[in-house]
Amino acid sequence: MKGLQYDRKLQLRHDLPLPVRHPEEALIKVLMAGICQTDIEITKGYMNFQGIPGHEFVGVVEAADSGSLIGKRVVGEINCACRACDNCTAGRYNHCTKRSVLGIAGRHGAFAEYLTLPERNLHLIPDAIPDEEAVFVEPLAACYRILEQVPVAKDSRVLVLGDGRMGLLCAQVMKTARADVTVLGKHEKKLSLLKGPGINTTMIGEALRGIFDIVVDCTGSPDGLSTALSYTRPQGILFIKSTVAAQRSIDFNDIVINEIQIRGSRCGPFAPAIQALQKKEVVVAPLISGIYPLDQAVEAFHAAAQKENIKILLQM
Ligand SMILES: [Zn+2]
Ligand SMILES: [Zn+2]
């Protein structure tokens, strides 16, 4: 099959073997996939991953043990758990000690014509959600993870730091919790995409220091963390959403003195993400900067790394 392979460099290949479908797994024909910051970090050495990257996708099930899935349009949770280790037994499947992760660790990903995933990872996509919006379910679910981790009270002051892919999604999700959301970014054009949903946007942070109940670092940059800390109020919560290949540093004294809670936050629930797209509570279409055919996957990667672009999609 055709696919994009990363082996210290990105290369479009036409001779990749079809992924092997194990019991209780589905073979999925990928329709569309999204390039995210994690994919870009992988090309900088993050996770030491080699193989086919890509974890944000929508596809059609071609083969599965459960016949009812065949022919259905699906998205998939990316963590494949062993269901037997201590974390799995405790219900922390996304933290399975032996997990493989689609396109990130130990499992080929979505930037190819086919992928496999356990059937239990799959979620059906309603007809009302087009492919180019369905590929946003995975990153959107990651934003809903925050609402699983802490109760976000109505009118609580939330700052989303960063106006990239993740920031623009996170801001909208925090708004669904009726929080008072501000996005601090660097690009007027990107921030203007949020004008509709009633979210405050700004490019000047000076007056905002130390006032937010919750700060979500979506900068994807190594120094975003210390900036985010400066905006968090005493006893506030700072969420770290981005994984970066580079090492980050932070002044721990500020955390102690201001009694800040720092929370890591990764993969989240798919059901509310699908529902939000269906009900149009979250708008993703304006975030699409370009759709490239799989044949131009390398060019698409370069486009995804350009600051002026938001979301770049691949069509298989
Ligand atoms: Zn991602
Ligand atoms: Zn496990």
Question: Any descriptors?
Answer:
binds zinc ion, 316 residues, seven-stranded mixed sheet, six-stranded parallel sheet, 24% helix, globular, single chain, alpha/beta
Uncertain regions: pLDDT < 50 for 5+ in a row?
Answer: none
Look at the structure and give the mean pLDDT: 95
Bound molecules: zinc ion
Shape: globular
Structural class: alpha/beta
How large is the count of helical segments? 10
Q: How is the biggest beta sheet arranged? A: 7 strands, mixed
The total count of strands amounts to 18
Describe what this molecule looks like in 3D.
By secondary structure, this protein is of the alpha/beta class. Helices cover 24% and strands 28% of the residues. The protein has helices at 37-42, 86-89, 131-134, 137-149, 165-176, 188-192, 224-231, 252-257, 270-278, 297-304; strands at residues 3-6, 10-13, 25-35, 56-63, 73-76, 79-80, 100-102, 106-107, 114-118, 122-124, 157-161, 180-184, 200-202, 212-217, 232-240, 261-264, 288-293, 311-315. Strands 3, 4, 5, 9, 10, 17 and 18 form a seven-stranded mixed beta sheet that branches. The structure holds zinc ion (ZN) (2 copies). The site of one zinc ion has 5 residues, from loops.
